[in-house]
Amino acid sequence: MLVIIGYVVVLGAVFGGFALAGGHLGALWQPVELLMIFGGALGAFFVANSMVTIKATMKDLPGLLKGSKYTKDTYMELMALMYDLLTKVRKEGLMSIEGDIENPAESPVFSKYPKIMADHHVVEFMTDYLRIMVSGNLNAMEIENLMDVELETHHHEALVSSHAISKLADGMPAFGIVAAVMGVVHTMESVGIPPAELGMLIAHALVGTFLGILLAYGFIGPLASLLEQKAEEDGKIFQTIKVTLLANLNGYAPAMAVEFGRKALSSKDRPNFADLESHVKQKR
Question: Do residues 181 and 36 touch, judged by C-beta distance below 8 A?
Fold first, then answer.
């Protein structure tokens, strides 16, 4: 919603200011200029990116119109789930959760937390490292190093679409200049026509530069920034799982390990201790 509001403000301020200054909005409607700018930018986008990046970008863009998929309720479910799993390990041993992590969909523990089960990336990350813990072949430091490598890879992949859109935004002013230059060429070859018509052609050419800059800094560039913020937010849930599991590996009780994980959350998403404790008790 904020994306749409922001775009409306940009359009209102720019075109409204132009109209208030006495400009004619009709002069800014140049579909041929838009064709050259968007067509050139789209072609360059295809050249500069692999099919994997293009698909990831197309998948991520619609999500910008929604809020974060990881809310305070999601994090409370996550920590309640981890508390249940780690408590089961503490009481019955690591082998007691082998069935849960091998088939989470049929696990009585995982089934109590539908918001977590709906995200297969989170479930896979958690069960993979629980499986490593069950195997007993790696110590806490080795598991932490492995987690760091995986999280770095995940973070790099999450930023792919942001980088692609950022590069696209960087090129928009240049394509605006290309459109403007083409308009100037057309103007120069039309020398000899009445001055009023010549002035109109020059105005049309200048619109290309205007549109390229407006699209870059008013529309496409902000999308790249928002995609980057989304990637940072979405990576926080994996950091929470990491901190909780490592705390447990280092000998902390389930309640304290979950508290470690709670502290890893951003302040806007972090449930307070009382709310989390109440939620965990309700899920028992």
Answer: no
191 - beta bridge partners?
193
Q: Name residues whose C-beta falls within 8 Å of residue 27's C-beta, 6 or more positions apart in sequence.
A: 200, 203, 204, 207
Cα 22 from Cα 255, distance rounded (Å): 67
**pLDDT tens per residue across span 208-257:** 889 999 999 999 999 999 999 888 888 889 999 999 999 988 888 888 88
**Torsions phi, psi for 119 (to 5 deg):** -110, 100
Q: How many residues does the chain have?
A: 284
Q: Minimal CA–CA distance to 241: which of 127, 159, 138?
A: 127
User: 207: closest CA among 245, 179, 168?
Assistant: 179
- Residue of 182, 181, 180, 173 lying closest to 213 (CA atoms): 173
Give DSSP secondary structure letters for 34-57: HHHHHHHHHHHHHHHS-HHHHHHH
